Amino acid sequence: MRARDERIEELIIAAVADELTPLERVELDELRAVHPWIDDEIASLRGVAERVSIEGEGWRELPVSAALRERVLGASGVASSDGDGSRPAAPSAARRGFAPLLAAACLVIGVVTGAGIASLAASDPGPSVAEPAPTGPVGTLGAIEPVTMRADPGIDVDADVIAHTWGTEALLEIEGLAVGETYAVVFVGADGTEYSAGEMLGSEVPIVCRLNAALLREDAVRMEIRDAGSDVVAGAKLPAA
User: Fold this and answer.
1) CA dihedral over 113, 11, 32, 49, signed as positive or negative
2) Is the distance from CB of 3 to CB of 82 less than 8 angstroms?
3) Three-state SS for 179?
């Protein structure tokens, strides 16, 4: 089954690169009849390819480490090459160029393999061990830290922050913001410098979002939600980390 999974992966890459041979087209059509999800994966990858080409640089062949490939393919249920000689000869430059895209798209938007190949590999799922969520004092990397925010009447905010090595993440669930109005999430540093974590539009339904600011948790002293006029509609003082 592993060789079959990897062959499907290669045919998808070849289809996106428009490099299918006549025999491969027949092979892929037969697989499509059995696994309709393949068409969705090809369409998704082509969309990624179009967005990248818009940037103007085209495809560049970037090195993908063996560890990253194993991690991506393993997470999605696709086996890496097992050296049994079942794969065709070395792929063309265009196909190789799509290999990094395959890994990136799988990590970023969950395309390429999806539930289809995962189901093909279900006969050998392997052990599954859930990793415990990080816990610890304020500022512990990866630990969810509840934050109590004071908000204007009619606005309800459920907030958490997470410390990362690259900044601070806000997890927000908000109700009561004016529909269609723009709101900004801002972290304030100990020296008064403000760091944007992004913006959102008020909605009739609860807003659930994750936003990030380039400010280390140990340097953050406040988190605020501000309206278009920069007035604070909800805010909280963050405990020292």
Assistant:
1) positive
2) yes
3) coil
Q: Give Cα separations from 119 to 1, 130, 184 (angstroms).
A: 11, 20, 42
Dist CA 53 CA 36 (whole Å): 27
Over residues 139-188, the pLDDT tens digits come to 899 999 999 999 999 999 999 999 999 999 999 999 999 999 999 999 99
Rg (CA), the chain: 23
Q: Which residues pair with 210 in a beta bridge?
A: 171
Q: Do residues 167 and 185 lie in contact, with contact meaning Cβ atoms separated by under 8 Å?
A: no
Give the pairing type, strands 156-163 and 207-213. unpaired
In sequence order, the 6+-apart residues with CB closer than 8 A to the CB of 198 are 184, 185, 209, 211, 212
Q: Could you tell me the end-to-end alpha-carbon distance of the chain, in angstroms, rounded to an integer? A: 50
pLDDT computed for residue 39 by the predictor:
86
Q: Which H helix or E strand runs over 233?
A: strand 232-237
Instruction: Tell me, yes or no, if the pTM score tops 0.85.
Output: no
In eight-state DSSP terms, residue 17 is T
Q: Is 87 exposed, middle or buried (0-12, 13-18, 19+ CB in 10 A)?
A: middle
User: Would you state the torsion angle of the CA atoms of residues 183, 185, 190, 193, taken in this order, to the nearest 10 degrees?
Assistant: -60
Low-confidence ranges of the chain (pLDDT < 70): 1-4, 49-131
